[in-house]
Amino acid sequence: MRIENGTVVDHDAMGPDYRVLTLKLPEVAPLAKPGQFIHLRLAQLHDAVLRRPFSIYRIDGTHLSILYKTVGRGTASMQNLRLNDSASVVGPLGNGFPLNLAGSVTPILVAGGYGVAPLYFLAREMTRHGVLFIGGAKAADILLADEFRALGWDVQVATDDGSLGVKGLVTVALDAWLQASASHTQPEFFACGPNGMLKAVGDRAIRGNWKAWLSLDRHMGCGVGACLACVQKVRLSGQETLARVCKDGPIFEARDVIWED
Ligand SMILES: Cc1cc2nc3c(=O)[nH]c(=O)nc-3n(C[C@H](O)[C@H](O)[C@H](O)COP(=O)(O)OP(=O)(O)OC[C@H]3O[C@@H](n4cnc5c(N)ncnc54)[C@H](O)[C@@H]3O)c2cc1C
Ligand code: FES
After folding, report:
1. What is the pLDDT of residues 111-125, one digit of tens each?
2. Model confidence, pTM
3. What is the DSSP string of 95-111?
4. CB-ligand 1 contact for 67 (6 Å cutoff)
């Protein structure tokens, strides 16, 4: 983990609601693993002392990119970053996805909205191709489908309004695939998206006796394990306990997560 001032080298829109911000980070970028995140502070947001967490979407040499959606004050102010502006970064943070797959396993990635970002980094690092399921409210929320196809992945899309792919939740597409393929494949899931989606993927994995690695999204304070803003109830070695999503996660195996309504 490093603290580094990154320089903006690219900042482009991806559709109407998302942007990709690329920072030159010669110290942080080479250390990054799929599923890890950075904690970003914006110089122009003077009254906000807290950083904002973003999954690492791409690493290209010393360049690190994030893919973000504008939802509030911090992300709105990020939109104003211009080439050569600087932004303070702490990272890479968190544990990341496991990269070693057992011999017969088919990797199944499940993404909701910007959850596709860490899964793209993961797909680029995996030596084996599998299936990506992407869900979103509408066609404009389905990101990177062509990029995954270019890597050799099968891509299955679901939208709430039916404007692209299957109409309904991403689990509609996933369940259809499981029904057709589960008898002759051994899936292992890697998921990032809203809690409801993570729980649904985890439930299917537990029922099928497969593994599911879930990237939890929690509001964060310090990002390094000190403030306990991000705690999640988990089960470790049969004991209920609290884990810090920023430091012990953000990736947890489905059986370890205790969901509270
Ligand atoms: C490990 C991790 C990885 C993340 N990766 C990405 C990413 O790749 N791309 C991306 O766009 N966002 C990502 N997020 C979410 C991102 O951190 C928040 O959207 C951001 O902090 C919001 O800041 P803001 O100041 O714009 O919003 P605020 O003004 O702080 O809040 C605006 C609204 O967003 C909600 N919100 C704030 N933080 C979160 C959160 N963590 N989860 C859900 N809702 C939240 C608030 O409740 C509020 O309704 C990630 C979060 C975590 C914990
Ligand atoms: S954000 Fe402070 S302990 Fe996780």
Report:
1. 999 999 999 999 999
2. 0.96
3. --------TTEEEEEEE
4. yes
